[in-house]
Amino acid sequence: MSNNNYGQLYVVATPIGNLADFSYRALEILQQVDLIVAEDTRHTKKLLQHYAISNQLISLHQHNEDQQAPKLILKLQQGLNIALVSDAGTPLLSDPGMPLVTLAQQAEIKVSPIPGACALIAALSVAGLPMNRFSFMGFLARTSHARTEFFQQQLLQEATWGFYESCHRIVACLQDMAKVFPLEHEIVVARELTKLHETVVRNSLKQVLSQVISDPNMQKGEFVVLVAGMKIITNSQQLTAAQLHILQVLLKECSVKTAVALAVEITGAKKKLLYQTALELK
User: Fold this and answer.
1) Which domain holds residue 111?
2) Phi, psi of 42 (to 5 degrees)
3) 38: three-class secondary structure by DSSP
């Protein structure tokens, strides 16, 4: 329960590209609050200037938020109303702000969402992949080894999942995925959503990777990558793509007996089926 004497913290979504994707309510809040807390004040200032909003800006980014958040809580407790924005989209989705929101909740300060644009949801809405369940993984690790390990952990994920990636690592990231996932596995790469060069590509991992490598324009901008969940077939006389891939990897390092034993434990597939497949592969 919030204290009526306290100010209010508004978590305000901002456009991810097209400036028209901004709600009347968001504009009203940014005009009325006492203070706007922004990831990059220079970036946010352009948005405010576009809409003729004149308000005080304070920077809150990953390098200062642990020190800045308690100070902002004091201002809220003194009765000031504050709006939190990120550079683009909905704050806290791979953006700074979590310490501030957490402290506000703990201090019984009312925190209100002002919904709007979100690159992840925008990509999901046009991907054509199942959305009844999905997982968001944020930005992946910067190193190839860490990404490869992560993809191995995701092999048996049955629900759609996705992540953000930068233009600097999109090729290397998809190449690492291709080391682990079947090349025919379906993925979606969405870039520059709502912007002039918006592109959404849905195809096999092999085809998408080829397109990204061959087209320099597909290596520019900001990316959302969505991955279809693995289709796990139960009580069937054939292995899923994920089970087969795991068995193939194990056979490279182990004897047939050991590979089959490990594959049974990892995948839950029938031992007889795994053994017959292993002999065929060998």
Assistant:
1) 9-117
2) -65, -40
3) strand
Within a domain: residue 4?
A: no
User: Per the structure, how many domains does the chain have?
Assistant: 3
pTM of the model: 0.82
Q: Which two tokens stand for residue 273?
A: 């089926």
Q: How many CB atoms lie within 10 A of CB 188?
A: 22
Residue with tokens 């901004």: 22
pLDDT in tens, 133-160: 999 999 999 999 999 999 988 987 889 9
Cβ proximity of 118 and 62 under 8 Å: no
- Pair 215, 260 in one domain: no
- DSSP, collapsed to helix, strand or coil, labels residue 36 as strand
DSSP letter string over 219-277? GSSEEEEEEPPP-PPPS-SS--HHHHHHHHHHHHHS-HHHHHHHHHHHH---HHHHHHH
Q: Is residue 52 part of a domain?
A: yes
Q: How far apart are CA 183 and CA 208, in angstroms?
A: 10
- 130 is written with which tokens? 């199942």
Give the angle subtended at the CA of 168 by the CAs of 166 and 172, to the nearest 5°: 95
Q: Quick: pLDDT tens for 202-227.
A: 999 999 999 999 999 999 999 999 99
Sorted by sequence, the CB contacts under 8 Å of residue 33 that are 6+ apart come out as: 10, 55, 81, 82, 83
Q: What is the mean pLDDT of each run of 10 residues along the chain (282 residues)?
A: 85 96 96 96 95 94 94 97 96 94 97 97 97 95 96 89 97 96 94 96 98 96 95 62 86 89 91 86 70
* Cβ pair 43, 145 in contact under 8 A: no
DSSP per-residue codes, 136-159: EEEEPPSSHHHHHHHHHHHTT--S
Domain boundary among 68, 102, 117: 117
